[in-house]
Amino acid sequence: MPDDDNRVLNPESETDAYEYIFSDIVDDEDDGKRLDKWISDNHPGYSRNYIQSLISGQKVTIDDKIITKNSYRIVSGTSVRILIPENEIPDITPWDHPLDIIYEDDDILIVNKPKGMVVHPAPGHFNDTLVNALVFHCKDSLSGINGVYRPGIVHRIDKDTTGSLVVCKNNHAHNSLAQQLKEHSIKRSYRAILCGVIDDDDITVDSNIGRDVRDRMRFAVTDDEHGKEAVTHIHVLNRFKNFTEVECRLETGRTHQIRVHSNHIHHPVLGDPLYGGNLGLKPPMSLEGQCLHAQILGFVHPTTGKYMEFEAPLPEYYNKLTGILNT
Questions:
Q1: Across the chain, which distance is largest between two alpha carbons, in Å?
Q2: What is the pLDDT of residue 214?
Q3: Which residues, at least 6 apart from 33, have a Cβ–Cβ distance to it below 8 Å?
Q4: Sign of CA dihedral 195, 197, 202, 206
Q5: Across the strands, what pairs with 186?
C-alpha cells in the first residue's frame, strides 16, 4: 500500500471541480514551519479547521506529492499547491430575522451585529446565527471560501460583542478582504469600558496571543512558538470612578484580542465573564456580557478600489451605561 506522503497528485484525473488553485514557493524564513500554520498565515481568509480538512482530504501537495499531515514541516524552496473545491451548498436553515444593515452592494454587506448573536453555526447554535439570517437575506449570494458553515464570513466578532462586520457576497470580494486582513490594512476601531482607571492616555500592547494551556476556552498572552503576533492600540476617551472608556485600534485580529490584552494590563473589559471583567466591581446595570463594540470598519472596496469606512452606532445599553457613569 503506497505511503500517502509519497503519492503524486494528478489534478486532471480528479473528479472534483476546483474553483481556486493556489501555488506558493516556501521562503527561507518559513523553513521548518508546520504546513497547516504556514497555509493559515498565508491565506487568512480560511479557517484553520478548513485548512486542516483540505490537508487530510488530499488537496495539498508539495512538489506534486500529496501531504496529509498537518504537522508536516515545510522546506524552503519547495512548491506548495492548494486545491480549493468548488463551493459546497451549505446545509444551513435560513432564518427570517431582521438584520441591521449599514451598507450593501453586489460584493459586500456591512452588518451591525447585536449583542447575544453568534456569527456562524456551532454546537448549541445551529439555527439562530448571523449566518442563518444571511442565508435568508442573501439566498445564494455569499462567498463559499471559508467552509460550508461560514458562507460570506471573512472575520467575526464574539457573541456578546456588538458592531460592524463585513460579509462577502462572492469569492472575489472574500479574497480581497482576506488579503487586506493579512496585510493589516483594514481599519478596525472598537469602543470599550474597562475596569479600573487607566493613568496613561495611550497604551500599545504588543504581546503574542495563544490558547491558554490551563483553560482551552480562553486565550492568553504567551511567549511560546504557538502564540500569534497581536498588537492593540488603546486610547483613553473618558475616565470614570473605577472605570475607563477607551478606543481600541487593532493592528492584528486574533481571537479575543482586545479582551486578552485588556486583561493582560490588568484592566479587563467590563462585564467580560471569561477574563474577569468585574474585578470585584459591580457594573451599575446588567450588561449580559462584555462591554465591547466594533465601531469603525474601513477597507478598500474589492471592485472599485476606493477606500470606504463604516461606523456602527453605539448600542443602547452602551449609551445608557456611559450616561450613568457620567453622573
A1: 75
A2: 83
A3: 41, 73, 74
A4: negative
A5: none
Instruction: In whole angstroms, give the CA distance from residue 247 to residue 216.
Output: 28
Residue pLDDT, tens place only, 178-187:
999 989 999 9
Listing DSSP states for 242-259 in one string gives SEEEEEEEESS--TTHHH
Strand partners, 110: 103, 166
N- to C-terminal Cα separation, the chain: 75
Q: What is the pLDDT of residue 121?
A: 82
What value does the CA radius of gyration of the chain take, rounded to a whole number of Å? 21
Which positions of the chain have pLDDT values less than 70? 1-21, 44-45, 86-90, 123, 225, 279-281
Q: What string of DSSP letters covers 295-313?
A: EEEEEE-TTT--EEEEEPP
Which residues are catalytically annotated? 158
Domains within the chain, CATH numbers bracketed: 4-85 (3.10.290.10), 101-182 (3.30.2350.10), 187-326 (3.30.2350.10)
Residue type, 239: R
| Residue 189: predicted pLDDT | 98
pLDDT of residue 86: 61
Query: Three cell numbers at 229?
Result: 503576533
pTM for the model:
0.75
Read off the pLDDT of residues 105-140 as tens digits, 9 standing for 90 and up. Answer: 999 999 999 999 999 887 677 788 999 999 999 988
Q: Helix or strand or coil: residue 17? A: coil
Of the candidates 186, 190, 120, the one whose C-alpha atom is nearest the C-alpha of residue 162 is: 190
288: cell is 449580559
Specify the DSSP class assigned to residue 182: H
The residue ranges of DSSP E strands in 120-200, in sequence order, are 162-168, 187-195
Residue 29 confidence (pLDDT) = 87
Closest CA to 160 of 84, 259, 72: 259
CA dist 109 to 131, 132, 276, Å? 12, 15, 34
